Amino acid sequence: MTDDVRLYRSTTNTVIAIGAWVAVTAGAALVVLLGATRSTQQLWALVPLALIALLVGELFWRPRIIWDEKSITLVNPYATTTVPWTMVVDIDTRFALTVVTPSRRYRSSAAPAAGALTMPRGGRDSLGPDQKGGVLRKSDALGTDSGDAAYIIRGAWHRLVESEAIPLGRAGSDRARVHVHVTALALSLLLAAATVPALLNL
């Protein structure tokens, strides 16, 4: 077994983040231009734009899934959860890719389930007990964020199980670790609080 670390990030979220940042950057440039030519009061608009840029980063760019031979880590907005493979009993996709343990379910923002407008591509069935009555659940189909991530991660999990790399009998004793992104949370709250007077001063 190697020490390789794998990573999954939603293509949809990445496109949204980049597009939003381009729009925010253009808006900030316009605000600075107007502030230089008309009134510096316009510069107050930079505060809500900064808040939007930060929220885009937290909600769309930061989320990802990382795994190695010891654990799977769900990097979500404002918190990161690391779950040892010894605790995993299932990988679900009902609302988003979800790591199921005997005591809790840990959901990933990096792989949301398919929405009403999502058109998954057909082809290969996913792994795991997620086909009800022989019908492939939409959130488990390839071509969706949740389905693609589940296919990859289930494959990694099954390989670890088959190679006997996951110790047995530790599901009840091992614990997941949660790390709150304190700096990002504090900065978001600060910018949110500053946005109200900034808008009033426009």
Description:
With 202 residues, the protein is α+β, with helices and mostly antiparallel strands. It has 2 domains: 10-61 and 182-200, no CATH class; 64-180, no CATH class. Helix content is 40%, strand content 21%. The protein is built from 4 helices and 10 strands. The protein has helices spanning 11-37, 46-61, 145-162, 182-200; strands spanning 6-8, 64-67, 71-76, 79-84, 90-92, 96-100, 105-112, 131-132, 135-136, 177-180. A hairpin with a 3-residue loop joins strand 5 and strand 6 (96-100). Helix 1 (11-37) runs antiparallel to helix 2 (46-61) and helix 2 packs antiparallel against helix 4. Mean pLDDT is 85; it is low at 116-133.
At a glance:
This is PH domain-containing protein. Keywords: Membrane, Transmembrane, Transmembrane helix. By secondary structure, this protein is an alpha+beta fold.
Our measurement of the CA-to-CA distance between the termini, rounded to an integer number of angstroms, reads 59 Å
SSE order in H/E notation? EHHEEEEEEEEHEH
Structural class: alpha+beta
Q: Helix tally? A: 4
The major β-sheet equals: 5 strands, antiparallel
Number of strands: 10
Whole-number count of domains: 2
- Mean pLDDT reading: 85
How is the quaternary structure best described? Answer: single chain
Keywords: Membrane, Transmembrane, Transmembrane helix
Region (Disordered): 115-141
Transmembrane segments: 12-36, 42-61, 178-200
Protein name: PH domain-containing protein
